Amino acid sequence: MVYQESAGRSRNDGQSKTVTTASPFVSLIKERILAQAANLESKSRSGPHESAKKNRSIWILNPAADLTLIIGAPLLIFIGIMAAKGIWSSATITSFIMIWAIGHHLPGMMRAYGDPDLFRRFWVRLILAPLFLLAVCIFSFWTTVNSGLIAIAAIWGWWHYLMQAYGFVRIYDSKAGSFAATTRWLDQGMCLTWFAAAVVLNDNALYEFIENFYNSGLGVPAPQTIATLQAVVKSATAAITTLFVINMVVRYRRGDQPSPVKVLLMVATFGAFWYSAATVTNIIVAYAFFELFHDVQYLTIVWAFNRNRVKKDQQLEGFTRFLFRPRVMLVGVYICLVFAYGSLNWATGLIDQQERYQLTRVLSAVFITSTLLHYYFDGFIWKLRESPTQTTLGIEKQKTGRFGFSVPTWLRHGMLWMLFIVPFGYLSVAQVLDAMDRQDDVDHVKWNRRIQESQQLVACTPESVNAHFTLGLAYEAQELFEEAEREYQAALGIFPKHSMSIDGVERVQRRQTQQP
């Protein structure tokens, strides 16, 4: 999902570290998978639903496809990116991946507007939401009061990632016949805490989130606040993980066995997201790595979903039935359509931004609208708890537990929209007020203020390469060359190949020798 148009600074080449998984653990999981498959087969010989259980599979597609496209995709993508870096630049690779980031919005829109039953149910939101978000995005980019919108899109993207992971986890458990409420809540807790930990406990990623809100006019949080947040996230992650493991053991002993495949998926997903947050200093490259993993998963599950719809729903007509027939050539057509839609975003980069500045701002607004709509639509068009979705995915129908009271749909949906409207309005006003406060600053006052704020960012995220580099730039602008070199060296101490910090050291050393 592409959403980030940087409001300020350049991003830099990243670093990588090897992530390993203990082989005994993997072997144990494999044994559990085989055992559960055998268990399901044995159960299918008895009981009132013999034929349904006999045909039950613990996989979405098949073992090879699931292990390659859904679980093992991060490893294949990592190998592919490393190989591509020997041929193309990081910018070229990232641009290619961003085509898929935008392109994978298309299948969701095809479902939203191509499924008559779905459109009849949600026609109000499917018509009004695009118009509203497009108006908001055009206003934001036309007036350049867009930092708040970008910050909100980043949060939506983070939530979207973790909820897709949670959706896959629940699909695998449902296919294994595991529907316990405790398991479901712990699965969601695992996704929430581990995705939060990857951002909060890694300074490179945390800096980017803090900077997004700083660019919106908000103040930099105190280091003590960040330390408290990190302690809470650590404790919550440890507690939820412990409860998750205990629940797995208890369920296995009782015979209500959660899917072991989901454990492999969690390891792959959490590991990939942590890698992108912790070991890649270039936020765009980090985003591209995990984004491609996310895209491959999404395109795979949408293809599987629609193939099953074509197979099971004889009344399905139109383009969906044509495209998702069992033809190898149509898989290529599907991929080409996704690529073509994503290429529209890439093509905007060919426009001269100085001569067609207003046009590029409108196009940027259009594509961030596409991104926000993708996040929004996915919140209700693929609901696993709905019977048609369960039937299409080939999982046992199961009613999830509800509270004893219910909120009217229109009220609940309106309250959820307030989670966008209120923060957007607040951040937009904050950005305008901050700009008004700074507009009369002379250069030295402006840079002194920038130095103070950059120092606060470094205090909050001392292991962030970009935090030290940005502070170095502020010092250099004020001709404080010794301080600037210190910060550039600090950035290099974290990541020795940070090219912009290397250039910064050489630049300030050269300027120091030129001083009288």
What is the total number of structural domains? 2
How far is it from the N-terminal to the C-terminal residue, by CA?
52 Å
Would you report the number of β strands?
0
User: How much strand content do the residues show?
Assistant: under 5%
Category by helix and strand content: mainly alpha
Average residue-wise pLDDT: 86
Q: Report the C-alpha radius of gyration, rounded.
A: 25 Å
User: Outline, from the CA principal axes?
Assistant: globular
Largest sheet: none
**SSE series:** HHHHHHHHHHHHHHHHHHHHHH
Q: Helix count?
A: 22
Q: Which spans of ≥5 residues are poorly predicted at pLDDT below 50? A: 1-26, 40-52
Helix content: over 70%
Task: Describe the overall structure.
Helices cover 75% and strands 0% of the residues. It has helices at residues 23-43, 50-54, 63-71, 73-85, 90-103, 105-114, 116-143, 147-175, 181-200, 203-215, 223-254, 260-278, 283-312, 319-323, 328-348, 357-377, 387-393, 409-438, 443-460, 465-477, 481-494, 499-514. It has 22 helices and no strands. Helix 5 (90-103) packs parallel to helix 13 and helix 20 packs antiparallel against helix 21 (481-494). The chain folds into 2 domains: 23-389 and 410-432, no CATH class; 441-514, Serine Threonine Protein Phosphatase 5, Tetratricopeptide repeat, CATH 1.25.40.10. Residues 1-26 and 40-52 have low confidence and may be disordered.
Keywords:
516 residues; mainly alpha; Serine Threonine Protein Phosphatase 5, Tetratricopeptide repeat; 22 helices
SSE layout:
Elements: H1 23-43, H2 50-54, H3 63-71, H4 73-85, H5 90-103, H6 105-114, H7 116-143, H8 147-175, H9 181-200, H10 203-215, H11 223-254, H12 260-278, H13 283-312, H14 319-323, H15 328-348, H16 357-377, H17 387-393, H18 409-438, H19 443-460, H20 465-477, H21 481-494, H22 499-514
